[in-house]
């Protein structure tokens, strides 16, 4: 099963009326198409992934490996996510997080 990236677009993530930054869903979908990422890494826009206090949550899954990211709020965060996805696609395995995203990684309780 290929790696997957789940991007929360649930009850809080991307909800500007709740004080959270928008999630650039169309940018991500376009990037997946432009770079042919879907062949090696699926992109899913999901409902609530939780925890809502870490708004704009994403989850990278590869087999038993899970990498959780939260508080993604800038275009640069999502650009780094695309670059990371391109690296995963090229290497066929989950590679190291871009430096910009390291501080956004968390372990769910």
Describe the structure.
By secondary structure, this protein is an alpha+beta fold. A five-stranded mixed beta sheet has the order 2-1-3-4-5, with helices on one face. It has one domain (4-106). The chain contains three helices and five strands, in the order βαβββααβ. The model has no long low-confidence stretch (mean pLDDT 92).
Low-confidence region ranges? none
Q: What amount of the residues lies in strands?
A: 15-25%
Total strand count, please?
5
Q: Major β-sheet, in short?
A: 5 strands, mixed
**Total of helices:** 3
What order do the helices and strands follow? EHEEEHHE
The oligomeric state is single chain
The global form is: globular
| Tally of structural domains | 1
Q: Which bin fits the share of residues in helices?
A: 25-40%
Q: State the end-to-end CA separation.
A: 26 Å
Please describe the structure with a list of short key phrases separated by commas or semicolons.
109 residues, alpha+beta, five-stranded mixed beta sheet, 5 strands, 20% strand, globular
Concise summary:
The protein contains 3 helices and 5 strands; from the N terminus they run E-H-E-E-E-H-H-E. The chain has 109 residues and is of the alpha+beta class. The chain has one domain (4-106).
